[in-house]
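Worked example 4.2. Below are the chains of a multi-component assembly; read each line carefully before continuing.
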Amino acid sequence: MSNDRKILHIDMDAFYASVEQRDNPELRGKPLVVGGGSNRGVVAAASYEARRFGIRSAMPIRDAMRRCPELLRVPPRMAHYQGVSQQIFEIFRTYSPLVEGLSLDEAFLDVSDSRSLFGSENSIALRIKNQIRSVTELTASVGVAPNKLLAKIASDLEKPDGLVVITHENIHSILDPLPVRVIPGVGRETFAKLAKFHIYTIADLRNASRRDLTSVFGRFAERMRQRASGIDDRPVVASRDEKSISAEETYDQDLSDVVVMNRELLRLAEKTAARLRSRKLVAGTIQVKIREADFTTYTRQRSIHPPSCSTDQLFQMAKQLLAAWLAEHPEARIRLLGVGGSELAADGQRDLFASLPETGKDDVDQAVDRIRERFGALAVGRARTLDRS
Amino acid sequence: MKLVAAREALLKPLQAVIGVVERRQTMPILANVLMVAKNDKLSITATDLEVELVATTTADVQNGGEVTVPGRKLLDICRALPDGAEINISQSGEKVLVKSGRSKFSLTTLPAAEFPTVEDINAGQALELPQETLARLLEKTHFSMAQQDVRYYLNGLLLETGKKFLRAVATDGHRLALCQAELPGGKLPEQQVIVPRKGVLELQRLMSGEGSLNLELGSNHIRIQLDGIRFTSKLIDGRFPEYERVIPQDTSNSLSADRQLFRAALQRTAILSNEKYRGIRLTIQENAVVLQAHNPEQEEAEEELEVSYGGAEIEIGFNVNYLLDALGAIESEQVSLALVDGNSSCLLREPGNDDCKYVVMPMRL
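Applying the procedure described above to all two chains together yields the following structure tokens:
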């Protein structure tokens, strides 16, 4: 790994919430969360006004409302955010082919070899920020550093609309006073363990005794010390392909009836399969996500051969996985279900039996997709996804 | 139960049946093997409720009886004893004692009556045929079976009788392999059964390819008796697709190539195909095929192969593994590929021989 890498970490500021405030002037300047349309959803994103009340993403909406009764809620428009995300990623790719997307609104860029074309890493960072602002009217915070770890830490230091540059010269003056929590991998539990050894800041961590570190991190002790010294060799891996595609839903009332669960699974499988098909992808692994009423979350997955984007095949597999899970958790009350596909590949392989009526269900999927494309998602659906209650 | 047997006389049947002894124990007794001693014969049965194997061996039976013991442990014990060892097995209360020389083992048991076995399979027809025939049919088709496909009826192999033929067909929806053999004797009744993948692989492991076997086809089971081993498998309860409709009938536009040269060229080109979906492009021109592959790293392979072809130029993409599997199963020096266009399936076979057919669907590249 070259010693002279220049890595950018770009993180959109309160992305979903900012998009909503941009699109609707009435929401601007007000505490706002994007998240499930009911009291039972969780916060997907909180505006900076809402964050002042201590509201964070992944917090249940109910808790958020308690903290801020006048909180505005907007249901998420994922397809819309995806569109904005594409605009942003297009900007990234004009500066480097090495773009590693972490989510819709966050990416690493390796601009080490872009400097001869676009100037210094700092001016690339500024140009990207400006371009994001002029194309999307949104702001991003950027960290510039010799590696991913430091770039990620840097982008978070002066949010929103920040630009922080960490160089070999200022590494220690910037890192040392920061709390250990800023290091990815140091969560609440680890933080508590470290506190027992009076390790609070990155400087404490770097200077801690080997014995203390080993008792907290086990065999990762040296790696954590390296992190505290700002060392990180991980390359930026261009993620041209999405890693997974999924759909999930939080329910207003906990589900306990298998028939209803399966109906919901079919609905989710249909969404996921349609997303796969619209991207001309097939999934080699199908997973279901299950969250119980007490927030315990499970995922179960299995590979399918051949990889598929067929609603029916995704549904069948999801149903099997859920049934197996239910066998272990017979009394379960479920508040969230999700169906996803990963191990994605281009859907190039043709099917021998696609033209035979009894096996050629793919034709149904394609017909449904075409109708929905013209008339909208509600124009046609499977009878079994209809709520008969 | 009390018997004495040579280590080798126990090892062979245990090794034969151990493949179906459950590792993940859904029912504790499935980790056991059933031992039945009677008239100087010891039979050892293992089952995973889908496939049942019964292996019979000779033993000096002093007291007849039946009991079940942990299969893997018994096998490991026999394997670990020295060559030529004599093994005493006797039941003592709830335990089975295994003694040999100065070694003594005491194994837990479960009642033989609780061990699930398949007795009569109500066979609709029974055939006797050379082992070599069935072994060959499976060998030439098994690789096209689906694996954990949600179309559960593809996760196995179709055995079909009719006219004078026994036919094996396997398909995963992307490619299909068909191979048939003419059986001596008269016309056979028409019957289709789907043997699950696990059963097919287990059966292949058991067949030596020599001697003959008895094949019984029931409506829910298939049973095969071969040297000292009885194989019984549940059938997949489903309808196999109408496979004949996807086998190209018009073979007028065909190319013919040296099979080994074609295979070697594909193997070389495949090195730089995408590891995940293995796409390879064939450009078929007058008396030549150009093979091309590239991967996400933008590395490229290209090779030209001399063939005999006089039709229109066709550009077509395939998963190279499917072509290689078919070319590996065909034995003739030349191979014939019948093609229609870049979107239609391709038929590979030995020129002039319709006993084995391989159909491969193309990929969009």
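Take a moment to check your reading of the output against the notes. Chain A has 15 helices and twelve strands. Chain A has a mean pLDDT of 86.
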